[in-house]
Amino acid sequence: MKKALARTATVSAAIVGMSLVPLAGTSYAASCSGAGCDNQGPRATGCETASVSTQKTIDNNSRKAELRWSAGCSAAWVRVTNNSSNSLYNSYGYIEKYDSAGKLIRSLSIRVPDNKGGSDWSNMLGGASYYYRVCIAFVGNEYPMKCSTKF
């Protein structure tokens, strides 16, 4: 009887342990898709890891903006990085969403971090039937705004 209880306890512990470890190739579904991702965070929704690629990159006075696209969520966002040691100028990255006629639908912004090498990202704009672009602008117009082409 003791052997049977010990064997049952060992098997039960193994089953519980296996259920806590994801199997190779396991993916987790994102919590939004398309326009349902509008103004949601890529990390919080799981879109940050759902087939993400960088579609466009621009640089403006050592501040970089990347148009990030999640194929798994059909959503885009801007990731900004400060590669300048000069933090005198406040700068912002923007992501813009356009319809097929070229009309601006919505835009979101994120402040570029002051610290060299610092990065941050905006919330997302979603939908596969739209066009997106990213821009970098400086407060006070010290440098002209630069934008990517649309994706």
Describe the structure in your own words:
The chain is an alpha+beta fold. It is built from two helices and nine strands; from the N terminus they run ααβββββββββ. It has helices at residues 2-20, 42-45, and strands at residues 52-60, 63-70, 75-82, 91-98, 104-111, 119-121, 125-126, 131-138, 146-147. Strands 1, 2, 3, 6 and 7 form a five-stranded antiparallel sheet that branches. It is globular. The N and C termini lie far apart (68 Å).
How do you describe this structure in short?
The chain has 151 residues and is of the alpha+beta class. The protein has helices at 2-20, 42-45; strands at 52-60, 63-70, 75-82, 91-98, 104-111, 119-121, 125-126, 131-138, 146-147.
Point out poorly predicted stretches: 1-27
Write down the overall geometry. Answer: globular
In percent, how helical is the residue content? 10-25%
Count of separate DSSP helical elements: 2
Q: Quick check: average pLDDT? A: 84
Structural class: alpha+beta
Strand content: 35-45%
Per DSSP E runs of 2 or more residues, the count of β-strands stands at: 9
- Oligomer type: single chain
Span of the ends, CA to CA: 68 Å
Elements, N to C (H/E): HHEEEEEEEEE
Cα-atom radius of gyration: 22 Å
Biggest beta sheet attributes:
5 strands, antiparallel
